[in-house]
Amino acid sequence: MAAYLAQRLGQSALVVFGISAAVFVLVFLSGDPTALMVPPDATADQVAQFRRAMGFDRPLAEQYLRFLERLTRGNLGVSLRHEQPALDLVLERIPATLHLAAAALATSLLIAVPLGVLSATRRDSLYDHLGRVLALVGQSVPTFWLGIMLILFAAVRWRWFPASGYEGVEYLVLPAVTLGAYSAAVTMRLLRSSLIEVLGRDYIRTARAKGLGGRAILFRHALKNAGIPVVTVLGLQIGTLMGGAMVTETVFAYPGMGLLAIQAVRNRDFPVVQAFVITVGAVIVLANLLVDLAYTYLDPRIRYR
User: Fold this and answer.
1) Exposed (0-12), middle (13-18) or buried (19+): which is 179, by Cβ within 10 Å?
2) pTM of the predicted model over 0.90
């Protein structure tokens, strides 16, 4: 396990390195960074001075090596708008975004697991049909539209929850439901199909022949084995949740790093955009590593060497 973990950590470092390279190149593909960062009314002397100060007058390879050297020290430049270290700005907002992503993931599991189990154990019943319709609707409804509808009804008309901000747990409810709806629909459909397949296997029929009750078979044998593909998809959903947080945080004016990234794009604050992309990439890589390690708990036959 230790050797496998060391190997995966090395692979994760290479992935983060690739993300940093892609972010660096995309900034230059979007145009001359100097033209994007200086005010439109800047003089030629001010533009030249800015290029020298930022090192944009040096060869591209040298600039990238300097970028990597700063990255190893946690220095991704200074925000052009806030005049603060870009990485510090992102890290200040990351707890709020992680709280939102965790709440959305918990919401999706609270919805998906009961509906998926009910649909699989009562296949082709009314519950199964309703569950599949809800899953289809959850995958079809745009996130921003769902968020606006929740604000209009749950916040403005009925005044159940606040519409924006982040000052307590109640502020997480509407954004978490908005962000977790798509993930709940995907997880529910996958759990249903996986559980139906597992319930038809020989060892389940053998357990029934031995007289085990339905709940014991479901929770002790079937659900645990059916959870392996679900855990895989949940690991992939981390990236979807982190990306969807940008839209959700914008709709609800939620002070996370997704809203900070949207504002940085609008203000052409590219150091903050770079810090955001690299931070999100590192979080997704770590989440997928944890998912791989969770396989050994769900299936004791899996051993990493």
Assistant:
1) buried
2) no
